[in-house]
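Escalation from tier 1.

The customer reports that the assembly of two entities below gives different structure tokens on two consecutive runs. Tier 1 could not reproduce it. I'm attaching the input and our single run for tier 2 to review.
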Amino acid sequence: MALPNRKSGLEEQIEENLRKVYQKTVEEDVPDRFKALLEKLKAQEANK
Amino acid sequence: MSDLEASEEHSDPRDEIVQHLPSMRAFALSLTRNGSAADDLVQDTVVKAWNKIDHFEPGTNMRAWLFTILRNTFYSDRRKSRREVADVDGSFAETLSEKPHHDGRLAMRDFEEAFAKLADEQREALILVGASGFSYEDAAETCGVAIGTIKSRVNRGRSRLAELLDLHSDDSMEMTDKATMAVVNGMIPPGRFSA
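Tier 1 run:
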């Protein structure tokens, strides 16, 4: 026999943790290498 | 700002790429499970997107378009390198350590270990739909499969996680109970909590 309350509690926590795993990286500062990369790509474009 | 108002020469969709870097890094990390590999993957994706911007249809979902490139790059690199990058030792989980929870919630660490055990396709479906807020339609397009396939991957991924975590919580519960009972029975003097 299933335990619906426990099950749904676990599912809820799974959803919450999924978002946390993702948000943790989303909220990090983007490393400078990416800003430098985009600037380099723009500069190359301008020289075409 | 509406697209109609922006003058043609100043509206380069590539200017939008920068806004998507944080979510691209998060998606890349969920695929590679390794921080530096994730950033290399994002870098390759940015370069490809920059050069293939003509393939992007303005007004459509740029994040979904970028995620598609990222994902294709990931799988094609992996095919080329012919090695499995699955994180068997759990180093992904190690990079994401967090203070333990003492309130009975799932510890993040346990969750991440379980998450790392899922099949790639389930993990990416869960990240797209469950964490990044993609619609089933966008997730299906990003992964190049039918909507029903994404739905079933999400469902199977959730069940598998529940299974892994439920097992884990049973184990730790049993151990904690025994340890706690030993301490409670032997060491806490009566009336301890009355003050």
